[in-house]
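User: Structure with glycinamide ribonucleotide, tokens only please.
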Amino acid sequence: MTKRVAILISGSGSNMVALAESMTGDHPARPVLVVSNVPGAGGLAKAAALGIPTAVVDHRPFGADRDAFEAELTRVLEAAEPDILCLAGFMRILTPAFTARWAGRMLNIHPSLLPKYRGLNTHARALAAGDAEAGCTVHEVTEELDGGPILGQARVKIEPGDTPETLAARILPWEHKLYPAVLRRYAAGDRTPVWMP
Ligand code: GAR
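Assistant:
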């Protein structure tokens, strides 16, 4: 049976577009909803242009009350009856109650070679450490921030003169290859990691 995928974004949504455009033909999943916590996020218009229903759950009116924000997010998500949630540049930390609810059904893409550099400023931290390579990781989401089982990774060489910006620009196209490849496997029930290139 075709799996229903909801994609959560906060920004430009380029990974969301890559995922959505991959879910055609014999793909075992289809996009059913794109949700943003940021009103006006660039990805919302892109999702609408692709014909995907969109929703906004702005976190700001909830202040520090993460439970109330997530209750509203859950209500919006449940209405779309998703089988899988894909976090794609969704920049909110999730509570253990939320991650438990979606355990085994929620993926994230993170711009580092996990377990290195959980959290923010990943490319700057890889450069500061003098690493020879950087990359991106798709993983299952658990209550541990950027800590769930790894489902795929793409590696790029760090070149002399790289900045966080040049590195991000070189890694992003790999994100757009890796995430769809992992989702296709995952939606088919195969959790074997994808290694790229
Ligand atoms: C991507 O690089 C993604 O890996 C990163 O945000 C960017 C979103 O871009 N995610 C995180 O940093 C999660 N902690 P996009 O909106 O164009 O897909």
